[in-house]
Amino acid sequence: MTRTSSFKPTSARDRLMMGLDVPTVQQAEALVKATEGAVGVYKIGMELQFAGGLELARDLAASGHRIFLDVKLHDIDNTILRAVKNVARMGVTFMTLHAYPKTMRAAVQALREDGNTDLCLLGVTVLTSMDEADLIAAGYKGPIADLVQARAADAREAGMGGIVCAATEVGSLKTILGDELVSVTPGIRPSGHAAGDQKRVMTPGDAIRAGSDYLVVGRPLNQATDPRATADAIVAEIAAAL
């Protein structure tokens, strides 16, 4: 089942996903108000989810915003199937699961059973905060690039809408992803911004030139003195790179 054509970005602004990585709904609402119309998608991750962010996701989706629910699910098949059905009813546009084959197949099955074509399932390959040493410490062998490619292939085979990976790897995945799956790349740092805990990073322009469809920008936006101006600058860099 192919669902991904409608999830391809159509403008430079569409490609910018802002991470609402703040501890309270009030702070998140303030950031949305400050940047409304300046970004394409708002991402709600775990920190905010545990502070009322799920209701905020429903409310923002109902008001017409494109929402990326970054839940990174991974569980037994039945739990995944039921959870994904509930997420799909929230009206969000994107959600994440860890890119394990059984997990992804169960998620895709949930959408098939409900006939849902409005939710883009994203398989998280390898977190951008990890490097080769972290991978080895977690019990994996081989370069990160090999594992990312394997998980991208599994995502396509499962019928997922796309993957999450570092922009440093996206160029090597185009033959695997084809024209159907979208690539979402966190670890985006405009020039002059600290990498923080991210280890595989790129600037917005370099990420677009590498082939990224969507760029996730968190701290450089939500910690900015003027988030709207920062978003506008990132969108301009994206547009110049297209």
Automatic annotation (TrEMBL):
Which spans are transmembrane here? Answer: none
Task: Determine the domain of life of the protein's source.
Answer: Bacteria
Return the PROSITE patterns for the record.
OMPDECASE (PS00156)
Any one GO molecular-function label of the UniProt entry = orotidine-5'-phosphate decarboxylase activity
- Mind telling me which InterPro entries this protein's record contains? Aldolase_TIM, OMPdecase, OMPdecase_AS, OMPdecase_bac, OMPdeCOase_dom, RibuloseP-bd_barrel
Catalysed conversion reaction: orotidine 5'-phosphate + H(+) = UMP + CO2
CDD domains from the entry? OMP_decarboxylase_like
Class of enzymatic activity (EC top level): lyase
EC id:
4.1.1.23
Q: Which residues form the Orotidine 5'-phosphate decarboxylase domain?
A: 15-234
Known role: Catalyzes the decarboxylation of orotidine 5'-monophosphate (OMP) to uridine 5'-monophosphate (UMP).
According to the record's subunit comment, the protein's assembly and interactions are: Homodimer.
What is the protein name given in its UniProt record? Orotidine 5'-phosphate decarboxylase
